[in-house]
Amino acid sequence: MSIPTRPFGAAGFELPVLGLGAMDTPHSPEAEATVRAALDAGIRFIDTARDYEGSEYLLGSVLRERPAADVFLASKTFRRTAASAQYDIDRSRQVLGRETVDLYQLHDVSTPEAWAQVMAPGGALEGLRDAVDRGAIRHIGISTHSLEVARLAIDSGAFAAIMLEYSAFYPESLPVLEHAADRGLAVIVMRPLGGSGRTSTIRGRIARGEAGPLTPANLLRYVLTCPAVSVVIPGARYPDRIRANIEAVEAFVPMSPAEMRELEQAAAALYD
Ligand SMILES: NC(=O)c1ccc[n+]([C@@H]2O[C@H](COP(=O)([O-])OP(=O)(O)OC[C@H]3O[C@@H](n4cnc5c(N)ncnc54)[C@H](OP(=O)(O)O)[C@@H]3O)[C@@H](O)[C@H]2O)c1
């Protein structure tokens, strides 16, 4: 078995649909083992950011052991001006040990003010475009927690990829994901399991035999049922999580609308 692949938007290549969100991975005694388990299992998309403490450093040190690894690295900058974004890009390249970072994203552009800043003359988007021209990054993306900003970003034509939250806990992104895919953007889904607080509660319920349909495997299945999704990036700090998520994705069958509604209801009732 291998992880199914999907097109990365209109970029002209495919990637395994299961990636790794490496935001919290460094905060674990099994951090390096987790990254190695992901690479060994065929995960190719790994998401990090300048602002994820220790994450680029962790990835850089594991990837230096494996210079031939075929990995698609995505990082991000919170900086809002061209010059400071360029500075972040060069720090990422140095720490990750890469001449070129495959995808560089404007991080958490979630207010109209932040959107105006990054798009202004001298703003961060300009810095990312210059970085493409000098071969420092390959593709430009954006991450946002605002569906309003997401629509502006999609319609701007400036981005090859967009990262959005989508899950049974947060189904309202669906039309925006579909719009992004229609416009040829790659759609990267963050927080597909609802985030670490909820998953910890879910793990407790599973241990007590009380989970019902609300399992990590079903939450991943829910997200992948949307064909607009290019890559899903559950966070993980332990190799066992990677193995469980691989198993879930390899066994993927789309959910029926009734199953999706049932999971949304179970998600909404998690803390009842
Ligand atoms: N751009 C942004 O503004 C932004 C914001 C948030 C997140 N993100 C990206 O999205 C990624 C994922 O988000 P997230 O980590 O917040 O939320 P998430 O992926 O929904 O949930 C992560 C949690 O799920 C647990 N988990 C993963 N697989 C599991 C399994 N098979 N069984 C049981 N538990 C499992 C992890 O546990 P352990 O940690 O204990 O292994 C972790 O606590 C981040 O790493 C980051 O790359 C981006």
From TrEMBL:
<dbReference type="InterPro" id="IPR036812">
    <property type="entry name" value="NAD(P)_OxRdtase_dom_sf"/>
</dbReference>
<dbReference type="Pfam" id="PF00248">
    <property type="entry name" value="Aldo_ket_red"/>
</dbReference>
<dbReference type="InterPro" id="IPR053135">
    <property type="entry name" value="AKR2_Oxidoreductase"/>
</dbReference>
<dbReference type="InterPro" id="IPR023210">
    <property type="entry name" value="NADP_OxRdtase_dom"/>
</dbReference>
<feature type="domain" description="NADP-dependent oxidoreductase">
    <location>
        <begin position="18"/>
        <end position="199"/>
    </location>
</feature>
<dbReference type="InterPro" id="IPR020471">
    <property type="entry name" value="AKR"/>
</dbReference>
<protein>
    <submittedName>
        <fullName>Putative aldo/keto reductase-like oxidoreductase</fullName>
    </submittedName>
</protein>
<dbReference type="GO" id="GO:0016491">
    <property type="term" value="F:oxidoreductase activity"/>
</dbReference>
